[in-house]
Amino acid sequence: MKKTILISFLLAGSLVSMAQQPYQGVVGRTLAESKEWWPEPVKAPKGAPNIVWILLDDVGFGASSTFGGLISTPTFDSLANNGLRYTNFHTAAICAPTRAALLTGRNHHSVHMGGFAHYFSSAGFPGYDGRIPSSKGTVAEILKESGYNTFAVGKYGITPDEDTSDAGPFDRWPSGKGFEHFFGFLGSETDQYRPALVEDNVNIKPDGRHLSEQITDKAISYIARQKKAAPDKPFFLYYAPGATHAPHQVAKEWSDKYKGKFDEGWDVYREKVFANQKKLGIIPADAKLPERNAIIKAWNTLTPGQKKLYARFFEVYAGYLTYTDYQVSRVINYLREINQLDNTLIFVVIGDNGASKEGTQEGIVEYSNSPRRNRNITREDAAKFNEAHLDEIGTPQADANYPLGWAQAANTPFRYWKQDANTEGGTRNPLIVFYPKGIKDKGGIRTQYGHVIDLLPTTLEFTGIPFPDSIKGIKQDSLQGTSLVYSFDNAAAPSRHTQQYYYIFGTRAIYKDGWKAGVSHRPNYLDLNDYADPSRPAVVRDFDKEVWELYNLNEDFNERINLADKYPQKLAELKHLFEEDAKKYNIYPFIDWEDVFQRRLRNSQKSTIPVPKQK
């Protein structure tokens, strides 16, 4: 494989350089005195595979059957059983930062996506303005200039709100970042039956079908048309469904498959999944399950009405995930039908962060009757409403999101959840690598440390495509990820990605050679209210007084034993590394999302400039 990669790399370099070299003809005063010249068309390296990146939304480590969960995902099971499972792979703990890092191969603050690209949550600083610079080119831009066709379907999530109308500008839409076709939505979440839908550079009306079905149809149609026109030309497909982000919506035929399957509750679920993960070899044989997060009630203390309601929430979620797996199977089966599956490199990242805590402790049936979106609704009122409207969960009329207890269960074997950048529960997500021609250890497990910024360099090394000095004449900043190709054929290879920072909304961590230090900013703050009170006085937060924790992940992979008091020197060393990264990657200033929200809200009330409507 290494020899093939080297030859392809050199070939690709020559082809790309031919496309970028200056004019080589002769321009004389007359045609007779002149010599014509045309650059050679750019072609991908000979034998270069198709590439498919699949990124799911809000799926915890312990949800899918592929990684020990109790939710059936046969397509992912098959890909993993014929490829590789990476069990030590990481995201940024929330959607937009993860997606920006994934597509660019650079840390999220480095590409200006420290938070979101939304009007009320971006800030006017280099690490937070939500606008990826042209000097941080995407994988689609690189592959397009290297002879690939490029398509994206589903959730994009990194276009500034101000740019999302039909007037653009379109340079930060998918079409402006290297994708030749796009069908999906530009925001962070959308209704699955009434999505804020975009095709290429136009906002369009949805047709009423489930969004996952629509994006799959489009993905297949893009591949079909491309292969008919240019059978030998490879393609890159970025398949990023809105699933399984809230609202959890899916046809009853899918959710009813799980009727009664979760009546034992989230505590039993965690125990069963933990046992499965040991059997699969995904976690250490001597691992211990962390205690239930303190804010979660024991299942056996709930009322019969709560148990019935909460079980139904997770039945719907499970059906939603299995349905998503089915839609992915349609793409996989189509590739098999046209004899392209064996020549397709597939990465599947099961979740752009840990399972979501945004469903609150009671769960959400309708936002209008949830404290998350309505300050006039108490938790008691929400609980009563949910029990009375249980049958709405999963329907197009509902905004369903499961309660917090299921988020921890779906994150088994870890503590905590989405947004918690200091914990593995917020940042560790499964990765599957599938390529029949190049993966020898089929069904193998890999424990090397990885991060979403690694997939772009992995793709380039494996396909033999060099990283360009410039894209469209704009000099490119270097990549910050580390290729994982070294581990494909060597399960025992030491990790090459040895240091990584994390930072979301003030919560932060630093990883170095198996050690990890982190601090939770406002640890008891479960959710960010979408409609913060602009009259509340601004809060001055003292980040320096927050208490750090220290873990040795080599011996304690799921962060059960805090070693901060035992090894203060190691903690100080890691905190110093974090400060260095904070300066290097634009993490400063430390920002609390709610404070930014309120500042923008106050400014918008004073300004005559139209404020983009939140989706």
Uncertain spans: 1-19, 527-534, 608-615
Amount of helix: 25-40%
Q: What percent strand?
A: 5-15%
User: What is the makeup of the main sheet?
Assistant: 10 strands, mixed
Question: What's the tally of helices?
Answer: 15
Instruction: From the 3D structure, determine the CATH topology.
Output: Alkaline Phosphatase, subunit A
Give the termini separation: 47 Å
Looking at CATH, the homologous superfamily is: Alkaline Phosphatase, subunit A
Going across the biggest sheet, name each strand in turn.
7-6-5-4-8-1-9-10-2-11
Number of domains: 1
Shape: globular
Give the CATH architecture: 3-Layer(aba) Sandwich
Mean of pLDDT: 92
Oligomeric nature of the chains? single chain
Provide an overview of this structure.
The protein is an alpha/beta fold. It has a single domain (43-606), classed as Alkaline Phosphatase, subunit A. Helix content is 29%, strand content 12%. It contains 15 helices and 18 strands. The protein has helices at 2-20, 74-81, 95-104, 139-144, 211-229, 252-255, 266-280, 304-337, 379-388, 404-410, 424-427, 455-463, 485-488, 568-584, 593-606, and strands spanning 50-55, 84-86, 89-90, 149-155, 181-185, 197-199, 202-204, 235-240, 344-349, 431-434, 444-446, 450-451, 470-471, 474-475, 499-504, 507-512, 515-519, 549-552. It has a ten-stranded mixed beta sheet. A hairpin with a 2-residue loop joins strand 15 (499-504) and strand 16. It starts with a helix and ends in a 9-residue tail after the last helix.
